[in-house]
Amino acid sequence: MPFKRTLAPALLALAVCSAPLAASAQNFSDAQRGEIETIIKNYLVTHPEVLEEASAELSKRQQAAEAEKHANAVAENAKTLFNSPRGVTLGNQNGDVNFVEFFDYNCGYCKHAMGDMLSLLKSDPKLRVVLKEFPVLGPGSVEAAQVAVAVRMQDPGGKKYLDFHQKLLGGRGQADKARALAAAKDAGLDVARIEKDMSSPEVRATIEENFKLAESMGMNGTPSYVIGKQVVVGAVGLDALKEKIGYARCGKATC
Questions:
Q1: Hey, is 96 helix, strand or coil?
Q2: Looking at residue 221, which CATH number applies to its domain?
Q3: Of 133, 51, 123, 101, whose CA–CA distance to 223 is shortest?
Q4: pLDDT tens-digit series, residues 100-157
Q5: Do residues 151 and 109 lie in contact, with contact meaning Cβ atoms separated by under 8 Å?
Q6: Do 109 and 35 reside in the same domain of the chain?
Q7: To 10 degrees, what angle do helices 139-154 and 159-169 make?
Q8: Cβ(92)–Cβ(127) under 8 Å?
Q9: Nearest to residue 137, comparing CAs of 101, 172, 102?
Q10: Which of 144, 185, 206, 215 could bridge to 105 as Cys pair (CB 3.0-4.6 Å)?
Q11: Residue 182 — φ and ψ, nearest 5°?
Q12: Does residue 202 sit in the same domain as residue 218?
């Protein structure tokens, strides 16, 4: 009947999207409720694409809400995220896009992602990269992060830090204090000073700051990034990172 064909989409919309329908449904008789349920069921069986469309719209709205939440969190923590003296800053110090990476020296995905970061540093002269230790994978990761912070304390310019970072993150085996100190020695750093600085309040404060930031951004794994106002979780690959940088720089994937 034409009435049923017209009524079905309206009932479906009310059933899916309108909470007041649950209350008003109490006013229907059992027979009326049964007929409404049959109409909706038959409509969905005949037009299953409606569920696909509803699911896509829901996903779109959830993504928009998540992006807004992330943007607000970035804005609230911008000073510490981008300009904390406890981060290691590489690339263009006055770059037009901030690219912040949270990493763990025992994260296999971070090892692959390091190549992406180095490629971006080499190919994008306007990019400002900030590295933040985020040791979430156990005691060895914490030890490696402590060494890394001590390296940063000894090398504020970041040149030796980057060399150390590549040696340790690119190396084989479990990262811990011993492997981190060996990487620091290979990078030409003062190992005795590092061992002394590892127990300093600055090392503890740096790692605590990074964990607090990650929690504020909703990050629970590595690698995770803040690119402009966007939070990106996971090793998404070089092309995806370039797109995120493009959106941060000019509002589209490619500027």
A1: coil
A2: 3.40.30.10
A3: 101
A4: 999 999 999 999 999 999 999 999 999 999 999 999 999 999 999 999 999 999 998 8
A5: no
A6: no
A7: 160
A8: yes
A9: 102
A10: 144
A11: -65, -40
A12: yes
